[in-house]
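Can you please make up a whole protein chain along with its C-alpha cells because I've never seen that pairing?
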Amino acid sequence: QVQFVESGGGLVQPGGSLRLSCTTSGFVFGTTALKWYRQAPGREREFVARIDETGRRKNYADSVKGRFIMSRDPAKKMTFLQMNDLKPEDTAVYYCTADRYPTWGQGTQVTVSS
C-alpha cells in the first residue's frame, strides 16, 4: 500500500524557515520522481516542487524558486522541503506525492503569520 506521511509544518513568522519531511512506503523509492504540492483555503491544490529519480534534476514553481529547496534521501525513503524566507502567501497544507503513485497523505499545515 502506497503511503505518504508529511510532517514538520507549524506556525512561523514572515521571513522564517521550516523544513518539511515526507516519509514514503509501499513502493520502490528509486523508481519515481517525487513532488510537493500545497493547497491554501479556498484554492485549488498547486504544484510546488519536483525532484527526479536521481535527485539531480529539480523543478520549482515560480512563486517559490530561490526560497525552497527539495531533496530526497533514498536510504530513509524520505523527501524534504526546506522553506526559507516564508511569506504569508505560503500558508497552506503541504502534501508530497510521487509521479508514478499519485495518491495523497494527510498533509502538514504551514501557517506564516506575525
In short: The radius of gyration is 13 Å.
